[in-house]
Amino acid sequence: MDSAACALCCPARAAHLPMLIDSLTHPTPDALLTFLRAQLHARVTLHLAGEVEVLYAGRATSMAEAGDRLLLLKPDGSLQVHGPRGVKPVNWQPRTDHLSAELEDGCVVLHAERRSPAEVVRVRVIGCAQVTALHLGDEALFLLQGSEAQMQAALARTPDLIEPGLSVLNRELLVGVGGIDLYARDAQGRFVVVELKRGKAGHEAVHQLARYVQAVREQVPGTVRGILAAPDITVPALKVAQAAGLEYVKVEALPQVPEEALQPTLF
Amino acid sequence: MDSAACALCCPARAAHLPMLIDSLTHPTPDALLTFLRAQLHARVTLHLAGEVEVLYAGRATSMAEAGDRLLLLKPDGSLQVHGPRGVKPVNWQPRTDHLSAELEDGCVVLHAERRSPAEVVRVRVIGCAQVTALHLGDEALFLLQGSEAQMQAALARTPDLIEPGLSVLNRELLVGVGGIDLYARDAQGRFVVVELKRGKAGHEAVHQLARYVQAVREQVPGTVRGILAAPDITVPALKVAQAAGLEYVKVEALPQVPEEALQPTLF
DNA sequence: TTTTAGATATCGCGA
DNA sequence: TCGCGATGTCTAAAA
């Protein structure tokens, strides 16, 4: 591999913007090791394209034979190894307590460890086509519309959307294990437990609601109603709800923040 | 931005290995558009570092203001936009039915759509520091040890690991909603419902077991035991289990596939 | 296509 | 740190 020559003859090192810090093409193992050691603990993001083997041991154990992969190392210590398909990495480590690069048998080996849970990912770089160090800067402003938290806030403001005459007593009320999304009282003065789902509700949501309703019934006298509020529900879940004496109310997921309002700002 | 000159003077285009197809540093929007259009539908993996804005609309709606990001486009049509932290992308599209690159107001804009669910991700590239086209080849051999399926198979072979005298009648027995991991009979001839968890079991697992046990009790006469088999359990979950008359049995997660057996193959 | 259950889920919050 | 629940969860398998 005539990689040192390449790295020297065409180094894309001129960083016109502060973002691109350094980049090597087809480096030798030695050059790669020097590069990694210089950048690893420098709050930079590294991506590396090359042929690698990966070994993971922790909650489970996995091994991947040599293959073309894309590595991503972020300044928070997270590591991911991507293959040719899917959003999910082939191997990963969400957070590393210890990260190091060594030379073993002529190959650079990355070692990413974390405790709690005790896990280790070892990446052996057999060949490196390109490695780049970037400064990704701080997190940019990010807005998400349509989360369950926003749905909860909207319905807490206008509980009539669930049922006329409903008045909210609490949000995120802790009752034993877990929290009740909305705790309310209906027009007849009965207590109502409301479980929200931002998407289609499955039977797990019904069971969750059932647990909360039972917990409340053990603590307060009188009738306690349970309402599952979601934009949709699976057929089996609806049957389970009806059998358990729980109600389903269809509510729209998004309080319509229109594209027109977002579009001009961004594009 | 004198990017065209840079792309021409130091193009890391010489692909010493078949993996690296092409790479540009600080391309102009026009050069980037040409590059993307040439590579987008060519079964290659693209990664792009630059300043981008992202707009997502679908199950929810999100917008990210301009920031330094790393884009990853795989040949299966998946797209992900990474920020400086975490394994999870800031924005993504697991699968695209339509992918295109356009020039809008002097900026390259990527458009990734999918139907079912109807979702769209728009990425506006304000500045591109580096873009690379790679051939990641086929998926390499990958082995994972320690899945719940493997645990179930192991315990079905040797149910004595759960309790001496236990004999397995069924695996994945369907009973109403959901399936019983292991259905067995103990030394006294009582029916036993076993729920497995490969990691630490929470109270959800206990409730899941309780549902199955109740379903079985409605169908067969006599005593029905419920056993939660997992390598660990949370304290609240254990209390709930004891209160419900359900048992917890500690089982090791991995049937000992030793590092010694894996290590020599890989390293 | 719909539904379910698993995942090395990840991530963030609250006690 | 642990426990818990949401996630644009993703993903594969089964009905």
Automatic annotation (TrEMBL), chains A, B:
Residues 147-252 form the Endonuclease NucS C-terminal domain. The keyword Transferase does not apply. Residues 51-138 form the Endonuclease NucS N-terminal PH-like domain. InterPro entries: Endonuclease_NucS, NucS_C, NucS_N, NucS_N_sf, tRNA_endonuc-like_dom_sf. It comes from the Bacteria. GO terms for molecular function: endonuclease activity. Its EC number is 3.1.-.-. It is found in: Cytoplasm. Keywords: Cytoplasm, DNA-binding, Endonuclease, Hydrolase, Nuclease. It holds the Pfam family NucS_C. Belongs to the NucS endonuclease family. Cleaves both 3' and 5' ssDNA extremities of branched DNA structures. This is Endonuclease NucS.
